[in-house]
Amino acid sequence: MVERVLVAMDGSELSKRALRYALDAHRDADVTVLHVVGEPSGMMGAATGIALADDSEERVRELSEDVFEQAGEIASEHGVAVGVESEVGSPASRIVERAEEFDVVVIGTHSGSLADRLLVGNVAKSVFQNSPVPVTVVR
User: Fold this and answer.
1) Where are the beta strands (DSSP E) in the chain?
2) What Pfam families would the database entry show (predicted)?
3) Which CATH number does 4-132 carry?
4) What's the rounded Cα separation, in Å, for the pair 55 and 63?
5) How far apart are CA 59 and CA 102, in angstroms?
6) Which residue has the higher pLDDT, 45 or 3?
7) Over the range 70-93, which residues count as b (16 or more CB within 10 Å of their CB) and which as e?
8) Fewest C-beta in 10 Å: which of 38, 79, 86, 130?
């Protein structure tokens, strides 16, 4: 029986679909939404501000607010509450690291452009290949 579900969300339509799927498929489970903010680097845009912020934890929370608001609205539509957490790092690595605390991971997949796949990588594929628990990929 699935008791704890980790849903990776980035604010995309497919990640919202993943949360809806998790809430429908695992009605009695505790669901946690994880938003991973990319590691600070010259190429990561808004995430670079984390390293420069006076309070980096607060900055990570600010970068996650929209995703958490979306998750709350979806959970409310289902009449439940979800836990929300944010982390900094490589999304695939952080999701895989956290996966061992859960019974299943639910993640949306992007079939983005070649440029998207080359620059960002395929997070869902990496999570699927490396997760210590079952992964449901929602499209």
Assistant:
1) 4-8, 30-37, 83-88, 104-108, 135-138
2) Usp (PF00582)
3) 3.40.50.620
4) 13
5) 26
6) 3
7) bbeebbeeeeeebebebbbebbbb
8) 79
Residue 90 DSSP class: -
Nearest to 64 by CA among 21, 34, 92: 34
Dihedral over Cα of 51, 93, 5, 11: its sign: positive
> In the numeric block, which tokens belong to residue 136?
């449901």
Is the per-residue pLDDT at 139 higher than 80?
yes
CB atoms within 10 A of CB 94: 23
**H or E element in which residue 66 lies:** helix 56-77
Residue spans of the domains in the chain: they are: 4-132
What are the pLDDT digits (tens) for 13-49?
999 999 999 999 999 999 999 999 976 544 445 555 5
Encoded amino acid at 91, one letter: P
Summarize the confidence of residues 84-93 as an average pLDDT: 93
- Residue-wise pLDDT tens digits, 91-125: 999 999 999 999 999 999 875 566 555 544 488 88
